[in-house]
Amino acid sequence: MFEIDGAISKLSHCHCSMCRKFHGALFATYFDSTGLTITQGEDAILSYASSRNVTRQFCKHCGSPLPEILNDDNNGVTVPVGLIDSKISGLPCKHIFVESKSAAYTITDNWPQVVGYGESDTRYIAPAEDIENTLRATSSGEPGKEHPKTHTVTGDCLCGAVSFEYEGAPEFVMNCHCSRCRKAKGAAHATNVFVTSDRFRWKTGEQLVESYAHPTAMVFGQAFCKTCGSSMPRKRPGAEMYNIPAGALNQPPGAEPKGHIYVGSKAPWFDITDNKPQWQKSPN
Q1: Distance of alpha carbon 143 from alpha carbon 202, whole angstroms
Q2: DSSP code for 198
Q3: Is residue 147 part of a domain?
Q4: Residue 40: is it exposed, middle or buried by C-beta count within 10 angstroms (0-12/13-18/19+)?
Q5: Which residue blocks in the chain are alpha helix, DSSP H?
Q6: Residue 61: which CATH number?
Q7: Across residues 23-39, what is the average pLDDT?
Q8: Structurally, how many domains does the chain consist of?
Q9: Residues 164 and 245 in one domain
Q10: Which among 68, 101, 215, 254 counts the fewest CB atoms within 10 Å?
Q11: CB of 50 closer than 8 Å to CB of 22
């Protein structure tokens, strides 16, 4: 557990590939602040240096992403907003690193979209047509396009030690806004890809995958790489099915999300702006 006592600023949805791999979500959401105090469980925090300037932290028990200390003189921290219990709303937001956006996700809100951080230099604010051209050039597939059974989708963790693949289109894909998924991913919501066990295969590093089962849930849990904390596929209890975090994939999953479930638990700082079906809990 932790507390933040500083002002909140720079709320942003980050689409960079490192955030997607680490969180297992199609984008991560962070804010900057100061005054981080760990009130419980400091000994459970593990770290992974994903780049020269960024050291990511995660819980060694459940794999949830944790706040990161900034290298500045103001005790700065950057916080995954999906972890926050207090109400946060009304803050201006933006989409950053849109040049790395997953081809499986379409931005449908009106927040600004920028290349990189888009800060301190207005030349980095990309016109909409430039963003679309960049995404078209870098995308590895078309969002929502169902692939034939011979198509292989691959995925891996941030450090690259764990990798996996599956054949063909998934059984279904769903965006989940429940509080457990938000805590596990540290993001606005999870995008879960469900694939039958006979079409899923670990390629490397299966022994590095830690599986956490929530003590009060029938099926909910999370798997993650013990080295870097990246969210990884987990076999669904009582079913021959794997739940794969969409952010871990290197290509689009092969099908569009059916819709949004558990919107009754939706984060107050995130608005659903697409036209997909919504359920207060799960579909009947």
Answers
A1: 24
A2: G
A3: no
A4: exposed
A5: 17-23, 128-138, 179-185
A6: 3.90.1590.10
A7: 90
A8: 2
A9: yes
A10: 215
A11: yes
The residue range of the domain holding 87 is 2-138
CA 123 to chain centre: 28
- Tokens 């030349």 belong to residue: 123
pLDDT, greater one: 34 or 264: 264
CA distances, 227 to each of 63, 68, 156, 210 (Å): 10, 17, 13, 10
Half-sphere exposure of 36 (CA within 13 A, CB side): 20
- Mean pLDDT score of the chain: 87
**And the tokens for 274?**
């697409």
Pick from 194, 190, 179: which is nearest to 84 by CA? 179
Looking at residue 123, its amino acid is R
> Beta partners for 167?
152
- Cα 257 from Cα 276, distance rounded (Å): 8
> Do 12 and 129 have their domain in common?
yes
| pLDDT digits 0-9 by tens, 172-215 | 999 999 999 999 999 999 999 999 999 999 999 999 999 999 88
3-state helix, strand, coil in the chain (%, to 5): 15, 35, 50
**What's the DSSP call for residue 157?**
-
Instruction: Clarify whether residues 131 and 160 are in a common domain.
Output: no
Report if residue 249 sits inside a domain: yes
Q: Are the C-beta atoms of 13 and 94 separated by less than 8 Å? A: yes
Instruction: Report in angstroms the alpha-carbon separations of 193 from 7, 86, 123, 201, 213.
Output: 36, 29, 37, 14, 18
The rounded distance, in Å, linking the Cα atoms of 88 and 33 is 13
Residue given tokens 């969409």 in the structure block? 246
Burial of 79: CB neighbours in 10 Å, binned 0-12, 13-18, 19+: buried
User: How far is 86 from 55, CA to CA, in rounded Å?
Assistant: 25
Residue 74 forms part of a structural domain: yes
